[in-house]
Amino acid sequence: MTLTPPDDMPGIAAAVFERLGAAFETAVARAAAMCARDGRLDGRLLDAHQWICYELALANADLYAARTMLAQGGNISPLDAGLGLAFAAQAAPALIERLAGIYAASGLDAAPLDELSASAALRRLRRDAGGPEVLAALGAELAETGQEIADVRVDEATAQARDGFRRFAAEVVAPLAEQIHREDLTVPESLLQPLREMGVFGLSIPEEYGGLAPAGGDNTPMMIAVTEALSEASLAAAGSLITRPEILARALLAGGTEAQKAHWLPKLAAGEPLCAIAITEPDAGSDVASLKLRGTKTEGGWLLDGAKTWCTFAGKAGVLMVVTRTNPDRSLGHRGLSLLLVEKPSYEGHDFAYRQEGGGSLTGRAIPTLGYRGMHSFDLAFEKFFVPDACVIGEEGGLGKGFYLTMAGMVGGRIQTSGRALGVMKAALTAAIRYSRDRKVFDAPLIDFPLTRIKLATMAARFAACRHLAYAVARELDQGRGRMEASLVKLLACRSAEMVTREALQIHGGMGYAEESPVSRYFVDARVLSIFEGAEETLALKVVAKSLLEEALK
């Protein structure tokens, strides 16, 4: 059974984080002053103080997650409450250290941090909520009870969808996952067709257009629940299938004409055609404003010339959302971009070449990767490829709005990516618990050793914090808020997935490093999560920190 923290521990933890929150706000205010000129943020000053901004974003993620866990109160199980306090006990000293670095770099007096670091409240939090005996007891309970970790409350429809996709993932996806990964196969129709029938591609598309989202709104918790269930079986072969239609559907809903919505959204919801998103370029990365792929106006449409890279599922997809520079004036930056829908045949395999009747061509080659196999990310080359005017999202009114429509789509993609991270963490944690029960060393099961139990509890505490935060932000998004927080939860969950899968592999020892063990796949798959749908650094600097500083200047 759990070594129950003292009754006053939630209050002590809340008081510690109240003081941490005040220290954080002081750091944000100082950073805002350092990065502003005439009351407004200055791009050059932001770049000059990137390290401070980056550290603030990471600190904000841990602070927000800990506060979200502590706010659950009696709404969660005793096990989850213990894990939440354990996360807070680990996050508090890490936050103090991170803030101390920010204070030193920005010239702030660190006395408040020093006082908190030496306080009796912090010592008690670390000892009675995150000490080795407490963590070992939590780890033992995880292994003994098999209880659901971070059992977030959802509505009945979401619970039914989650349970249905969990069964499908366990019975259909999981048996194929290792073969797809090791042989670098394309996701087979034996997975895609039943997922089409289950409606997975229409989770973010309104019912009026053939999807599952409620009319006039979203059910983001359902999207996270389904994503998590599929990603637990395979990130690349199942969990990531939702991301591309999510992004394209949101872009269409934000800026498409009524005719475009009526034409494309039902098709996307049905998974026919499958879609891919072509944003990144060889020399641009996450810097969307500097994209170069050129669209030249011609009679009835546009001719595309240039390259894209890291376009996931581009071979199998029948339509690509391509961010294109339709205004040749490079000084316009992101205001010269538009979104074009490129239709093409669906191809199996690792390369393709498509030539239009008029002579235009589109070729693609899959990029070999250490993980995230199954969907394949492609290098693409466009040469005088014709796209009709009707395939510009928003048609004439959408010209120059590509950046804004892409960002509208990416909000959903980022919160959905946190669901992918949750699924991978859950799979790794489950595997680590199972292996620690079965594996014997020095004549005893691994789970009998305190260090193993402490590792499991630490992993579970981080997973629980990420899961509660993801669903909390999902509810905010459904109420029209939380755009910055969507990036924040992606930032935290994706970093956490790397930590959790690393520890899960370590618990497996040599077997964890063998490809025959699924935990090796979880480890290499997790590494991509902090890179795609907005690289960690870009989200931290350009979204999270910038939002914090802008709010402080108000």
Structure description:
By secondary structure, the chain is an alpha+beta fold. Among the domains are: 1-130, Butyryl-CoA Dehydrogenase, subunit A, domain 3 (Up-down Bundle), CATH 1.20.140; 275-407, Butyryl-CoA Dehydrogenase, subunit A, domain 2, CATH 2.40.110.10. The protein contains 19 helices and 12 strands. The model has no long low-confidence stretch (mean pLDDT 92).
What class, by secondary structure content?
alpha+beta
Give the strand order of the largest sheet, numbering strands 1, 2, ... along the chain. 4-5-10-9-8
Strand content: 5-15%
Helix run count: 19
| First and last CA, distance | 49 Å
Number of E strands: 12
